[in-house]
Write a structure and sequence with these properties.
By secondary structure, the protein is of the alpha+beta class. The protein has three helices and two strands, in the order ββααα. A two-stranded antiparallel sheet has the order 1-2. A hairpin with a 2-residue loop joins strand 1 and strand 2.
Length: 92
């Protein structure tokens, strides 16, 4: 990986290499003093798949177990109660 130093103009604009011309870029703030600039891969909207298309359906047993837990949830454990109280304290 090659590093290069660039300076912005008075309006905060940065001139990139010619390889970035007419490209969409992603700018990540790595730290308070460092930014990472990289070319974004653009995917046409009609090429994106729906999550449902790739999700495997539940087996009959898994579906029955899930529905049973929804209708009759188990009692909260001590660890869950502790985590809930910590979360509640943080949220005020």
């Amino acid at each position: 990986m090659r590093g290069e130093t660039r300076t912005t103009d008075a309006k905060g604009r940065l001139v990139l290499l010619k390889g970035f011309a007419n490209a969409i870029v992603i700018i990540e703030q790595v730290s308070e003093t460092e930014l990472r600039v990289r070319r974004a891969k653009v995917v046409a909207e009609d090429e994106l798949g729906f999550a449902e298309k790739f999700a495997a359906p539940l087996s009959d047993r898994d579906r029955d177990d899930f529905l049973s837990l929804i209708s009759n949830p188990p009692a909260p454990t001590a660890a869950l109660k502790k985590a809930a109280s910590r979360h509640k304290a943080r949220r005020g």
